[in-house]
Each structure stands twice: as structure tokens, then as C-alpha cells.
Amino acid sequence: MKFLITGGAGFIGSSVTDKLLETGNSVICLDSFDDFYNPSIKRENIRKALQHKNYLLVEEDIRNKSFLEKFLSENKVDAVIHLAARAGVRPSIANPELYYDVNLNGTLVLLEEMRKANITKMIFASSSSVYGNNEKVPFSEDDNVDFPISPYAASKKSAELLCHTYHHLYAFDIFCLRFFTVYGPRQRPEMAIHKFARNIMSKKAIQMFGDGSSKRDYTYIDDIVSGVIGSVNNLKGYEIVNLGESQTISLANLITVLEKKIGTKAIIEKLPEQPGDVSVTNADISKARRILNYSPQTTIEEGIDKFVSWVLKKKTDTLVP
Q1: Where residue 66 sits, what CATH number does that domain have?
Q2: How far is the C-alpha of 139 from the C-alpha of 148, rounded, in Å?
Q3: Which of 2, 81, 137, 248 lies at a CB distance of 3.0 to 4.6 Å from 123, suitable for a disulfide?
Q4: Which residues contact 193 (CB under 8 A, 6 or more apart)?
Q5: Distance CA 264, CA 306 (A)
Q6: Cβ neighbours of residue 231 under 8 Å, at least 6 residues apart?
Q7: Which of 105-119, 180-194, 266-280, 297-311 has the lowest mean pLDDT?
Q8: Is 301 contained in some domain?
Q9: pTM (whole model) above 0.70
Q10: pLDDT at 320
Q11: 157 lies in a domain?
Q12: CA 98 from centroid of its chain's CA atoms
């Protein structure tokens, strides 16, 4: 099969790309290489893929309607894996207009140009943040998500609605995958596990927002990739599906696990809780198990061990701060 992956040079996109190429598929990577973090990191992510005969890199923005119209008419693909987005809860509070423009308007432009090109299959990357401070744990796809607490979360919820609209009007097959805090090799440098690991190794203080009791359902990248591939293989109709590990760990315990794996005590700077941060995320993955044959394999201890090994290997690499 031939896939267009938007945001394909990023953490998740490049990891999905490697698996698709490994299994005999073709991939077109569409990425704008924006400056949210050092674009050189993304270029390193795809260095191996660039050598593959079934890989094409296109540097462009999903909001460029005229480009997409021409490109999709000339490059027929079997499905689109739409990962391109402005990511992060806290930055979205500082710049909500940009987040809505990229995450919502960008998704609309992509869907409309897909319709014109008669491409009707999409995997859309949503987020566990849409659940807000959901009182029922674990979070189920049937839960009410009408109360997001950040512009990022609201943009992802809104894009899910757009996806349903195109399913209803034009019979698109779309799965909206709600990712739960993905980590592992190539993880974005501003995310907690990555930042904490590097600061602990460098004996710099790490910032702990709140009292350390907040909990997250951290999901290892290999498990997320397996969920995306399962979605591609079972893509029919419109579905919202959680992809998580279905286990939680507190922020304080996460720091302890990192300290143990790195062999260094963390210097902790305690700060107030941040607006937009939720107190807990926890995925009910029964639906993913049922319709995607999804079965996460990596515990947080195993995943952190693999991640720390990767960071230690890369610690002298100036591309990764």
C-alpha cells in the first residue's frame, strides 16, 4: 500500500514510517519542519528512511490548499495517516490562534483536498487530552468529552468532529486514535520523560509541577505503532479508539524510575500546578483490543530502560538538547 503521512518526520510519524517501509509499503512524508523544536532532530529521525526506494519526502504545510490540491491529484495514495499538528497543552494556552489554525483548519484543508482527489481513508491522531478532568477512570471512548481544558484539547476534539462530518457526508473511513502520552526513542525534547532524563544526567534541576501525585498513562512508541498499523489493517467506518498502556504512574514515581535507570538522584524544583494540565489520564483499551487486536507489551519500567539507553547513546549528539 501507499501512504501519505502528515507530520511524517516527527516522533510518531517517523516511527510509523519505519514499520511501514519494513513491511513492504510505500510512504510519502509531508512535513513542514516548523520551529516548535529544532528541525534538525526531525531530519535525523528520517535519515534512514531517505535511503529507501519506497520513500518520498515533501516539505510543505498542510494548510497550503493549492499545493495539496495539485499534489493529491498527481500522487494517488491508499490512505492518509494524519499526524501533523501543533502539539502541547501549555504552548496552546499562549498561542491558541496558531493551534486552531494548524490543528483544525489544517485538518479541514486536508479532508477537503482528499475528497476532491477521491482519497477516502484516514487515520487521525487525536489525544487523551480531549477527556479533560474526566471523573470516571479509566477513560472510555463513550465518555462525554465536551469539557476540554486547553485550546490544544479543544482543537483535537473539534477535528474529531470534522472527521465524523466527512464520514457522514462522503463515506470516508476514518479512525480517530486518542494517543495517551507517547514516549520512547525520538520523543520530542520538551516532553517530560525526555527533559527529565537529560536534566538528571546533567545534574540540572527538573521542574515538578504540583505535588507529584498527578498520574499519566504512558504509552511506549512500539505499542503506539502497533495500534496505528492495526488501524490501517481494520479501517472501515468511523471509530474513536483509545491507544494507551492502560496503566498509570504518578509523576513522583516516574522520577524515581528515571533516577533508578540513570543511577543519579534528581534535583527537583517544585512549582505550582499549571493551567490546562489534567490530574490523571488512564485509557480503557478494551475497544482497541477488540477491533484492532491491540495488545501493548511494554511496561513503564521496560520502556524507560529502553529510552534511557537511547538517550545515553545520543547524549553527545548536539541535535538533541
Answers
A1: 3.40.50.720
A2: 14
A3: 81
A4: 183, 187, 218, 254, 258, 304, 307
A5: 17
A6: 123, 175, 177, 241, 292
A7: 266-280
A8: no
A9: yes
A10: 45
A11: yes
A12: 18
Q: How many domains does the structure of the chain reveal?
A: 1
Q: How many residues does the chain have?
A: 321
Instruction: Please provide residue 167's backbone torsions phi and psi, each rounded to the nearest 5 degrees.
Output: -65, -45
Catalytic residue numbers read 152
Residue that the C-alpha cell 529521525 belongs to: 45
Instruction: Report the Cα 18 to chain-centroid distance in Å.
Output: 16
Predicted confidence at residue 57, as pLDDT, reads 98
Task: Say if strands 79-82 and 182-183 run parallel, antiparallel, or are unpaired.
Answer: unpaired
Contacts of 95 (CB under 8 A, 6+ apart): none
The whole-number pLDDT of residue 135 equals 86
Identify whether 237 is part of a domain.
yes
Task: Determine the angle formed by the axes of helices 300-314 and 192-201, rounding to 10 degrees.
Answer: 60
CA dihedral 51, 53, 54, 56 (to 10 degrees): 60
What residues make up the domain containing 161? Answer: 2-182+220-244+281-296
